[in-house]
Automatic annotation (TrEMBL):
Binding site for substrate: H180, K184, E218, D237, K340
GO biological process, one term: glucose metabolic process
Any one annotated GO CC term: cytosol
Sequence similarity: Belongs to the glucose-6-phosphate dehydrogenase family.
Pathway as given in its UniProt record: Carbohydrate degradation; pentose phosphate pathway; D-ribulose 5-phosphate from D-glucose 6-phosphate (oxidative stage): step 1/3
Keyword NADP part of the UniProt annotation: yes
EC number of the protein: 1.1.1.49
GO MF term (any one): NADP binding
Pfam (any one): G6PD_N
PANTHER family: GLUCOSE-6-PHOSPHATE 1-DEHYDROGENASE, GLUCOSE-6-PHOSPHATE 1-DEHYDROGENASE G6PD
Protein name: Glucose-6-phosphate 1-dehydrogenase
Binding site residues for NADP(+): R51, K150
Alphabetical list of InterPro entries matching this protein: G6P_DH, G6P_DH_AS, G6P_DH_C, G6P_DH_NAD-bd, NAD(P)-bd_dom_sf
Length: 490
């Protein structure tokens, strides 16, 4: 089955940070893909904006180089590339002064009332400056939206301050807070799996589920993001946003519809039901780790502090035993873990069902494993349902644990689009379902803040782990203490 492309209204996307890493690696390639899919309509334009002085021509060359670098050669169709480049414009603006803003206004004010999206792919420290300039230069029309990238704060107070700053200029329905995990196909599939099938939902609770595991493992290290990462660490960088969003999609009640408010209301309830982890239980329920030298992707790699060139206790790994205090989930631990320089790049959610209450098979049948549903988010996206079956053939009743295995790549002959493609178009359609509402972001910080404070108060250090492994041994102990194990990569 081929995918269905619904063209969107014409728009002007103004990308602040137009010469930055995100624009180059993700935004420009994603927008080109939408061009290739035939989704962009006339007179759509993409306007790069940053302090660098550049002509339109130079920015088109920059864009072309970005496409060549980040897309496959066969994706670059000559006519489509030319059509795409014709949409590209550039304005040099300074967030901190009036320089360039009149030029931007002149470019935008074409007299046509088309969707206008401002994408802030810049440091949050200048979100407020840009928002003020947009307002002062009267760039806000009735179909204007603003898109902001994480990090939205480094704790609850700074997140509130940032939300206030943007909120002074834009209404909540105009603000699109990106969490790119929500744009991943397999993450959206979680909702399909849960709410488009009658099979799982009756079992989706503490009566039938023993525990849940969420792993987001990366094999990469710092990737040059030294300044940001060392101040953030894995809890702020991955758990506060991506992992908690995944947890919400697994744990939330069925929303009444896919409407943005309906979905976000349910996610918010989950965030607010998370049992606090504070200095009293932080040592028992969390593990901090930091990678040391080892091997990754086949070659030797340096440790975190060597890469950083300084001593640091920032965590590059975190494992947490989270609990949700509500009727559905009381007593069902959610084991979360994420880290850099782990054994492999792999994200998955494991729903571990309870064992059968009584076995009618004798000892010769072998061990009866509990059922598991494994949702593989990346790579090799797919779903595996682990079941017990009879080993075929004579010789009595021997049981085997096997998986019903569906690989999306094999099942569907379509390209798996990058998360940003979907999200960038949802902004134009003004569909907020896959974006975070202010109260969600703040509720997530409200749970994360006491963990950060707890670590500080008890002086919980980052445990070293060898690059290329599954993190510190304490993370294995975290789950094994409860008589469970991390799901093995199968
Ligand atoms: C980003 C984090 O939000 O997500 C990075 O800041 C991380 O540290 C990245 O590498 C992971 O995203 P993905 O899509 O590669 O899993």
């Amino acid at each position: 089955m081929s995918s269905q492309i619904i063209p969107v209204e014409p728009f002007d996307y103004v990308v602040f940070g137009g010469t930055g890493d995100l624009a180059e690696r993700k935004l420009l390639p994603a927008l080109y893909h939408r061009q290739l899919a035939g989704q962009l309509t006339e007179p759509t334009r993409i306007i790069g904006a940053s302090r660098t002085a550049m002509t339109n021509e130079e920015y088109r060359n920059y864009t072309l180089a970005a496409l060549k670098e980040h897309l496959k050669a066969e994706e670059l169709e000559e006519t489509e590339v030319a059509n795409f480049l014709a949409r590209i414009h550039y304005v040099s603006v300074d967030a901190k002064s009036d320089q360039g803003w009149d030029d931007l206004k002149k470019l935008l004010d074409t007299g046509k009332d088309i969707v206008r999206a401002f994408y802030l792919a810049v440091s949050p420290s200048i979100f407020g400056d840009i928002a003020d300039k947009i307002r002062d230069h009267k760039l806000i029309t009735k179909s204007t939206r603003i898109v902001v990238e994480k990090p939205i704060g480094r704790d609850l107070a700074s997140a509130q301050a940032l939300n206030d700053t943007i909120g002074k200029v834009f209404k909540e329905e105009q603000i699109f807070r990106i969490d790119h995990y929500l744009g991943k196909e397999t993450v959206q599939n979680l909702m399909a799996l849960r709410f488009a099938n009658a099979l799982y939902e009756p079992l989706w609770n503490s009566a039938h589920i023993d525990h849940v595991q969420i792993t987001v493992a990366e094999s990469v290290g710092l990737e040059g993001r030294v300044t940001y990462y060392d101040k953030a660490g894995a809890l702020r960088d991955m758990v506060q946003n991506h992992i908690l969003q995944l947890l919400c999609l697994v744990a939330m009640e069925a929303p009444s519809s896919l409407d943005a408010e309906a979905v976000r209301d349910e996610k918010l309830k989950v965030l607010r039901s998370l049992k606090p982890i504070t200095d009293g239980n932080v040592e028992k329920q969390t593990v901090r780790g930091q990678y040391r030298a080892g091997a990754s992707a086949g070659g030797p790699v340096n440790g975190y502090q060597d890469e950083l060139g300084a001593a640091s206790d920032t965590e590059t790994f975190v494992a947490i035993k989270a609990e949700i205090n509500n009727w559905r989930w009381a007593g069902v631990p959610f084991y979360l873990r994420t880290g850099k320089r782990l054994a492999t790049r792999m994200s998955e959610i494991v729903i571990a069902f309870k064992p059968i209450p009584h076995s009618i098979f004798g000892e010769s049948a072998g061990r009866i494993e509990a059922n598991k549903l494994v949702i593989r988010l990346q790579p090799d996206e797919g779903v595996k349902q682990w079941l017990m079956i009879k080993d075929p053939g004579p010789g009595g009743m021997r049981l085997r644990h096997v998986s019903l295995d569906m690989s999306f790549a094999q099942a569907f002959d379509v390209r798996n689009p990058d998360a940003y493609e979907r999200l960038l178009m949802d902004v134009i359609r003004s569909n907020q379902t896959l974006f975070m509402r202010r109260d969600e972001v703040e509720a997530a910080w409200n749970w994360v803040d006491p963990i950060l404070k707890g670590w500080e108060e008890i002086g919980q250090k980052a445990q070293g782990y060898t690059s290329g492994t599954w993190g510190p041994s304490q993370a294995i102990a975290l789950i094994e203490r409860d008589g469970r194990t991390w799901h093995e990569n199968d």
